[in-house]
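Record type: ASSEMBLY
Status: queued
Input:
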Amino acid sequence: MKNKSFLFISCDEAKLICDKAQYNEATSWEKLKLNLRYLWCHVTQAYVSKNKKLTKSINSSKIECLKNSEKKELKEVFHEELEKQHH
Amino acid sequence: MSKHQLDPNKWIDRYSDYLYNFTITRVNDREIAKDLVQDTFFASLKSMKNFKGEASERTWLISILKRKIIDHYRKINSKKGKAEVRMDFKSDDDIEGNWLEERVADAQYQTAEDKIINQELGDAIFGCLDKLSKKQATVFRMKTIEKLETETICNELNITSSNLWVIIHRARIAMAECMEKNWF
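Status: finished
Output:
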């Protein structure tokens, strides 16, 4: 039983590893366990497929966004302006 | 038909990333893009009385931003006295093949069609991002779009690594479902 859990993972664990893999943060050992489960688990297969599709779309869109600090700065100056308008 | 309402208190959270992404693809300069987005929010605040409620808040903000971008290029061009033409030749020694026509199909340039598809895809992604909770959207944006390290995000948001992965997991499920409806 112990040996089985050593290699076989739950569906939730597989999803977590799959998420990490999208950011290249899954270890080789984790990927091996994910691949094993992927062979027979339809839920894992569906999740991996959707997750990969999402990653591919986001990467191909090349979208960019403001950094948190930039957004905070923008929020501050904008709210100052907003306050001025209220007075 | 109900008319759209403006809520400037939520503009930065809801639209700053979308407006920034729209701008950066057109001006290719982070600082200029940031300034144009800020100018847009200020100008929108002053023009609130002119908002008729026929367009959505986002469409209205984009229309103001577009004018700001046009003004920006007009200003540059009037300074230079001519229209700016961006050319990116591969090498100076390539004299024989130095014809613009040969550069048209260069793979490094996006076609107009690619740009439209990317813009639409970007719109769909930001539209879905807007439907996430604030916390999920922030973590997802930092990890997926800004591509920050897990540790950096955890330190900045004061969350544990396990928290981060739970938030990412929920955000990815919601994003995938939303993209399934709106894009795939």
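Annotation: Chain A has one domain: 2-86.
Annotation: Chain A has five helices and no strands.
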